[in-house]
């Protein structure tokens, strides 16, 4: 696809084959061709007339491993073939925001940036919501729940929260580095929260 020569009036910038550089062109005629357009244009610098073929990029189906909390799933996502993806880039899909955490080229080599056509596998984590796992312990009985929340929401040891219509106190918070009995953590850093009934002294 050749850049420039959109449908606005006035001179357009595109590459001149004669000048071997991008120059201003006068648009003489536009002819629809399938899903694109052929543009007849004259270079203002050298007066050479050429046809510029403009076609929309074809979609490429790229397999992403999408992670939400502890769960992951493989999902094919359509992306334009002329796109370049980068680690740390955020994109929208299925009414959610996802951050790219890894992209691999042939041979499972991780790269910081890659054209879509050279990516063999990609990973992303949900950016706008996270799932925090909860363990509620009452006496000898324990049960598990999951809480979906904003990644920046903070939880503090000792604070009280409501789960399943009951009030619980946060006994401990487990991050990727271990369990803590004090302080606060953002939901995005939490692997699991341990809860005891509000009337428990354990």
Unreliable segments (pLDDT under 50, ≥5 consecutive)?
none
Please provide the count of β strands.
20
Global shape: elongated
Helix content: under 10%
Mean pLDDT, as a whole number?
87
Our Rg estimate from Cα atoms comes to 27 Å
What is the helix/strand order?
A: EEEEEEEEEEEEEEEEEEEE
Describe the main β-sheet briefly: 6 strands, mixed
Number of domains: 3
Counted by DSSP, the helix tally is 0
Please report the distance between the alpha carbons of the first and last residues. Answer: 67 Å
Task: Give your account of this protein's structure.
It is built from no helices and 20 strands. The protein has strands at 12-16, 21-33, 36-43, 49-54, 59-68, 71-80, 84-86, 90-93, 96-105, 109-111, 113-115, 121-126, 130-138, 141-149, 154-156, 160-163, 166-175, 178-180, 184-186, 190-197. The radius of gyration is 27 Å and the shape is elongated. The model has no long low-confidence stretch (mean pLDDT 87).
Keywords:
about 200 residues; mainly beta; N-terminal domain of TfIIb; 3 domains; 6-stranded mixed β-sheet
Task: Give a short overview.
The chain has 202 residues and is mainly beta. It is 0% helix and 64% strand.
């Amino acid at each position: 696809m050749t850049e420039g020569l959109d449908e606005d009036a006035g001179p357009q910038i595109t590459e001149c084959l004669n000048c071997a550089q991008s120059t201003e062109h006068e648009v003489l005629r536009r002819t629809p061709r399938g899903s694109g357009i052929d543009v007849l244009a004259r270079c203002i610098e050298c007066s050479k007339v050429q046809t510029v073929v403009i076609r929309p990029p074809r979609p490429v189906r790229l397999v992403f491993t999408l992670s939400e909390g502890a769960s992951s799933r493989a999902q094919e996502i359509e992306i334009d073939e002329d796109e370049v993806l980068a680690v740390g880039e955020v994109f929208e899909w299925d009414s959610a925001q996802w951050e790219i955490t890894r992209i691999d080229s042939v041979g499972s080599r991780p790269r910081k940036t890659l054209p879509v056509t050279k990516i063999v596998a990609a990973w992303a984590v949900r950016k706008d919501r996270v799932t925090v796992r909860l363990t509620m312990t009452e006496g000898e009985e324990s049960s598990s729940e999951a809480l979906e929340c904003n990644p920046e929401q903070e939880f503090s040891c000792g604070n009280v929260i409501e789960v399943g219509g009951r009030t619980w106190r946060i006994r401990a918070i487990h991050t990727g580095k271990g369990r803590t009995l004090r302080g606060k953590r953002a939901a995005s850093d939490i692997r699991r929260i341990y809860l005891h009934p509000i009337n428990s002294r354990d």
